[in-house]
Amino acid sequence: MANYRRALFSCHRFFNSTSTHNPISVPISPIRPKSLLRPCVGPFSRFYCSNQSLDIDLSSEESKRRLFNRLLYRSRQRGFLELDLVLGKWVEEHIHSMDENGIKSLVNVLDQENPDLWKWLTGQEQPPEAINMNPVFCAVREKVVNNLNNFAAPETRATPEQQWVRGWDDFKKGRDGPASGNQ
Question: What's the CATH superfamily of 58-164?
Answer without folding.
Answer: Flavinator of succinate dehydrogenase (1.10.150.250)
